[in-house]
């Protein structure tokens, strides 16, 4: 399967995390939405994000490997083209960007947003025709 996904994370306490070339970044306790895509093996990409034990490759890996960060919800949209920047634009209306996070290959401000709560995503995802992945 190919397409885009949104990974809802909960940071359980305030953290400062070294994120590759971005350096040390502060993450306040709360909810974050990460938007990504996989043009091959979308299911495997999402499964990888859920594993704690992995090589640090993408910016998001620096968060998802931490004990104080939990995946709470996953949305996926099957498509033959990447739509992550459009999804990130929609999510940006509801959250604060973690500047340059996860978007080194595009012109977006970020692909990770801190949000007050993630319930708003239900409407956004429905509008964008993105399904909740029940894992």
Provide an overview of this structure:
The protein is of the alpha+beta class and 135 residues long. It has one domain. Helix content is 22%, strand content 34%. The protein is built from four helices and eight strands; from the N terminus they run E-E-E-E-H-H-E-H-E-E-H-E. The strands form two sheets. It has a six-stranded antiparallel beta sheet with strand order 6-7-4-1-5-8. Strands 2-3 form a two-stranded antiparallel ribbon.
Strand order in space, largest sheet: 6-7-4-1-5-8
Q: Please report the distance between the alpha carbons of the first and last residues.
A: 16 Å
The helix tally amounts to 4
User: Could you tell me the number of beta strands?
Assistant: 8
Main pleated sheet: 6 strands, antiparallel
Stretches where pLDDT is under 50 for at least 5 consecutive residues are none
Radius of gyration over C-alpha positions, nearest whole angstrom = 14 Å
Helix content: 10-25%
Q: What is the string of helix and strand elements?
A: EEEEHHEHEEHE
> What proportion of the residues form beta strands (DSSP E)?
25-35%
* Dominant shape: globular
Mean pLDDT: 91
Count of individual domains: 1
* Structural class based on helices, strands and sheet pairing: alpha+beta
Topology summary:
Elements: E1 3-11, E2 15-18, E3 24-27, E4 30-38, H1 42-50, H2 61-64, E5 69-78, H3 84-92, E6 95-97, E7 112-115, H4 120-127, E8 131-133
Antiparallel strand pairs: 1-4, 1-5, 2-3, 4-7, 5-8, 6-7
Entry summary:
22% of the residues lie in helices and 34% in strands.
